[in-house]
Automatic annotation (TrEMBL):
Signal sequence extent: none
Main location: other
Domain of life: Bacteria
The organism of origin for this protein: Undibacterium jejuense
UniProt cross-references to NCBIfam families, sorted A to Z: PRK05303.1 (NF003676)
Gene name linked to the record: flgI
Protein name per Swiss-Prot or TrEMBL: Flagellar P-ring protein
Keywords annotated in UniProt: Bacterial flagellum, Cell projection, Cilium, Flagellum, Signal
Length: 375
């Protein structure tokens, strides 16, 4: 009975250890190729147009200060057969000149509708309640790819229940859902040639190599080959239907990307700091005004106990000292962490400018082993 009880206890302990190990095991972060790369030629195209919004409740352009609005009205009326006598002064309050923008998605076909954004380019007070007249939308090549028209919806206008408080946001920009109709398709070369080309969202030789290996394991050797750190050439079926199926299967392949380069992003206006991974510091000393930051590394030896049967292990203990005027703050930790330095600097009231200057000095001295990007 005791032996049976002991065996069950040992099994329970081993099971708990297994769960503990799995819970703290490094997470395998696999991503689909669809999230890591795109197919060359499959992209959006920006469209732009100039038009008029009419039907405004006296909130349109002041024609004395926006002569292009009057010229547009005269030109439009002439195209509609309305002749305006020479020297006539038009006092328009319900019309606004606008720019219309949208993006033409890949593989868009004639008849498909697009959402558009309508933005005032004059001194109109509001586009609320207006109607956009038929406006051609052109691409970078000057060709018309869509026609836009519809009622402009301006959001962000509201009032409280008793009417004593109103909230009015930006009223010179509105949206029209399905306000543009595609008139011309953009030629796409994805169905031409024996190969397609994948382009990684971020250049990385290790990730490109892993993507190539994953594709070759799935579809056979020599199916994919890396051209450089971003482009990957893939052999694809010639039949369009088979090629679409092939691309759908290819995009669903899971790949574990390589670890990104260490980067620290600092917003100099707000003082926000973002690190994409744990960033450590080398030994350094920085003096900035009444602030001083010192990072010292002390290499010690971890001695196992007498019954452990192990070996001595070197341990790097880092002392981070941050001083302001007469006071100072010390942090003792194995491995100097930039996160600890930033946290300590914030605790003693360092400004965004102080953080910017200190991080730049650490980067220039080589103590900060990461890319520093300032936005």
């Amino acid at each position: 009975m005791k032996l049976f009880f002991r065996s069950h206890v040992i099994s329970l302990v081993l099971f708990c250890q297994l769960l503990f190990g799995l819970s703290f095991a490094p997470e395998c972060r696999a991503e689909r190729i669809k999230d890591l790369a795109g197919v060359q030629g499959v992209r959006q195209n920006q469209l732009l147009g100039y038009g008029l919004v009419v039907g405004l409740d006296g909130s349109g352009d002041q024609t004395t200060q926006t002569p292009f609005t009057v010229q547009s009205i005269i030109s439009m009326l002439q195209q509609l057969g309305v002749v305006i006598p020479t020297g006539t002064s038009l006092q328009l309050k319900n019309v606004a000149a606008v720019m219309v923008t949208t993006s033409l998605p890949p593989f868009a076909q004639p008849g498909q509708t697009l959402d558009i954004t309508v933005s005032s380019m004059g001194n109109a007070k509001s586009l609320r309640g207006g109607t956009l007249l038929m406006t051609p939308l052109k691409g970078a090549d000057g060709q018309i790819y869509a026609m836009a028209q519809g009622n402009v919806l301006v959001s962000g206008v509201g009032a409280s229940a008793n009417g004593s408080k109103a909230q009015v946001n930006h009223l010179d920009v509105g949206r029209i859902s399905g306000g543009a109709t595609v008139e011309r398709a953009v030629p796409n070369a994805i169905a031409q040639g024996p190969t397609i080309q994948l382009e990684l969202n971020a250049s990385d030789f290790s990730t490109a190599s892993r993507v190539v290996d994953a594709i070759n394991r799935r579809f056979g050797a020599d199916t994919a080959a890396a051209i450089d750190g971003r482009a990957i050439q893939v052999k694809a079926p010639a039949n369009p239907d088979q090629r679409v199926t092939f691309l759908g299967m290819l995009e669903s392949i899971d790949v574990t990307p390589a670890q990104n380069v260490a980067k620290v992003i600092l917003n100099g206006r707000t003082g926000s700091i973002v690190m994409n991974q744990a960033v450590t510091l080398e030994a350094c000393a920085v003096a900035h005004g009444n602030l001083s930051v010192t990072v010292n590394t002390d290499n010690s030896v971890s001695q196992p106990n007498a019954l452990a049967g192990g070996q001595t292990t070197p341990v790097a203990n880092s002392t981070i000292t941050i001083a302001k005027d007469a006071g100072q703050l010390q942090l003792l930790k194995a491995g100097a962490s930039l996160a600890d330095v930033v946290k300590a600097l914030n605790s003693i009231g360092a400004t965004p400018q102080d953080l910017l200057a200190i991080l730049q000095a650490m980067k220039a001295s080589g103590a900060l082993r990461a890319e520093l990007e300032i936005i």
